[in-house]
What we know:
The chain is an alpha/beta fold. It is built from eight helices and twelve strands. The protein folds into two domains: 5-124, Rossmann fold (3-Layer(aba) Sandwich), CATH 3.40.50; 131-229, Winged helix-like DNA-binding domain superfamily/Winged helix DNA-binding domain (Arc Repressor Mutant, subunit A), CATH 1.10.10. 40% of the residues lie in helices and 21% in strands. α4 links the parallel β4 and β5 (101-104). It is globular, with a radius of gyration of 18 Å. The termini are far apart.
Amino acid sequence: MAARAKVLVVDDEVYLAELVATALRFEGFATAVAHSGPVAWRSLRDDRPDLLVLDVMLGETSGFDLCRQMRDAGIDAPVVFLTARDAPGDRISGFVAGGDDYVTKPFSIEELVLRVLAVTRRLKGPGRPHVLRVADLVLDEAAHEVRRAGRRIQLTPTEFALLRLLMAHPGQVLTKAQILDRVWQYDFGGNASVVQTYVSYLRAKVDRVPDGPDPVPLIHTVNRVGYMMRAEPR
C-alpha cells in the first residue's frame, strides 16, 4: 500500500475516533472519520478507503453487519475491528464477518497502530509480485487476483495472504503456529482456531463451485499437524 494509504476510522465515540485518526496520520496515513454506520457506508462508496478501523457497536447498527455489507458489495478493504467484547465467540464472529484483525478496548494507541501496520504489510506480501500456480489454481500477486479453471475468486486480503502462503509451499505441511506467524505476523495468544476458520473460508471459495460440481480439493488437513496445498490425493 502507498505511504498515503487512506484509512477510515468508524466509531461513535467522537474523541476516540479522532485520537485514532490523529495517531494514524502521524504514521503517514490519510485518514477520515465516521461516527455512524450510514456515514461510514457513504464514505466507503465515495472515497474507497484502503483500510477501515471499525468499532463493533455503533448504536443503530453493528460493525459486523457493515463489514458483511462491504464484502457482499465486493469491497475487499481490510478491516481492523475495535470492541469492548473479548469473548472467543465474539472474536471469531469478527473474522466470520470478513474482518482481518480484532483489537479489544481498552487498548493502547501504539498497539492499534502496530496492528494496522501489520495488516498493510500483509497486503504487500513478501518479495516481488509473481504468479503462483497449483493445478488449475492461479494466484497473480501483481493483479491481486485468484482464478480457478478460469473462474475468478473473490478473496479478502487475509484470505489472499493465507492462500499465497499455502501455494508458495506446495506439498509442504504448515503448522497452525507457522501460519499465524507468517500471515498475521504476530501472536494471537495461541488462538489457532482463527487459522481453522480461515482455512474453511478458503475451501468454500477455492475447492467448491456454486451450483456446479466441486473440483478436485487442493487444500488438505494433516491431522494434528496443520494444512497443505496439494493437487493429487494421497
